[in-house]
Amino acid sequence: MRYSSAYTGHYQREDTSGLSYDRSIANRFELAIFELEQVLLRDLFYRLRSSDPDTRYLDFACGTGRILALFKDSIRSKVGVDTSPGQLELAHKKVADAELVCGNLVTHPDLLRGRQFDLITSFRLFLNLEPENRVTILRALRNHLAPGGYLILDNHMNRYSILGLAALVAHKVFRMPKKPHVPPGRRGIISTMSDREIRRALSAAGLEIREVHRIFVLPGHGAFLLLPMRWLVQLEARLSRVPLLNLLSKNQVYVCTTAQPA
Ligand SMILES: C[S@@+](CC[C@H](N)C(=O)[O-])C[C@H]1O[C@@H](n2cnc3c(N)ncnc32)[C@H](O)[C@@H]1O
Questions:
Q1: Three-state DSSP state, 167
Q2: pLDDT value at position 188?
Q3: Where are the domains of the chain?
Q4: pTM of the prediction?
Q5: What's the gap in Å between 7 CA and the centre of ligand 1?
Q6: Ligand 1 pocket check for 34: Cβ under 6 Å
Q7: What is the structure's pLDDT at 15?
Q8: Check: CATH 3.40.50.10810 for 6-158+193-258?
Q9: CA dihedral 121, 192, 248, 194 (to 10 degrees)
Q10: Which H, E and C letters describe 174-239, residue by residue?
Q11: pLDDT of the residue at 111
């Protein structure tokens, strides 16, 4: 199958090293969000898989191994897939015992030799992928979900979060130019994705949403946080559970299974 993506291509360039990605997320705001993501993912692993160390686990678009490393000691069989050799080099340093596979599952459907996984995660991918590629990749992942398996993915910039709305207003009202990497067709100065968009893509790929978790309501940027880190993480753990208010969360995590035929 043909696959063309400026986003995937960006990470495949030789000068896009894993180090520059890790540096871009090594700031207080991203670390505060990651604190809550870690708690959520460990809790999901416990609830959905009873923390079974024999869970067959795939982290798709694993990059430098940020999510894969969370399960370093708790899952025996870990596979990371990514199209970027530069990102995988760092992942190997963080999770030496994981099997890392470099390649594109769309153009090479036999990349994983038809293996099935009980748990697949894919973080920080779908927001930036071109909409037409989202469904293609989701379908490829669904083919690797074992019966009763779970796919957990995120949208790390909800269009209707406080930051997402600010980006929209900045562009529409204050005519601020889009950031250089924002693909055509996006409406704010940064890339955002709505809940509706990802739901549509999941449904088109034959996936059913079982749970949605919302993380981080209050805005921040880089080193700037509205409160000291520890207080903020504690407050956010509560805010993220407040109905309606949590619709403004920046990150949204979707737990999906293969859709049952109607
Ligand atoms: C922003 S990084 C996220 C890495 C990691 N999942 C995380 O949460 O830190 C996005 C990753 O997606 C990878 N990627 C982009 N398109 C891909 C594709 N078609 N198949 C596999 N990986 C892809 C890139 O190489 C990059 O490592």
A1: helix
A2: 67
A3: 6-158+193-258
A4: 0.94
A5: 9
A6: no
A7: 63
A8: no
A9: -80
A10: CCCCCCCCCCCCCCCCCCCECHHHHHHHHHHCCEEEEEEEEECCCCCECCECCCCHHHHHHHHHHH
A11: 96
Amino acid at 106: V
Q: Provide the pLDDT for residue 187.
A: 67
The pLDDT, as a whole number, for residue 55 is 98
Residue type, 70: L
* Cβ(124) – ligand 1 distance below 6 Å: yes
10-residue mean pLDDT profile of the chain (262 residues): values are 84 74 91 97 98 98 97 97 95 97 95 97 95 95 98 97 88 74 70 95 98 96 94 95 95 96 70
What is the rounded CA–CA span in Å between residue 194 and residue 42?
Answer: 25
Q: Is 191 in the pocket of ligand 1 (CB under 6 A)?
A: no
DSSP notation for 57-121: EEEET-TTTTTGGGGTTT-SSEEEEES-HHHHHHHHHH-TTSEEEES-TTT-TTTTTT--EEEEE
Among protein residues, the one with the nearest Cα to ligand 1's atom 16 is 8
Q: Which of 40, 42, 101, 117 is nearest to 73 (CA)?
A: 42
Nearest atom of ligand 1 to the alpha carbon of 63: 27
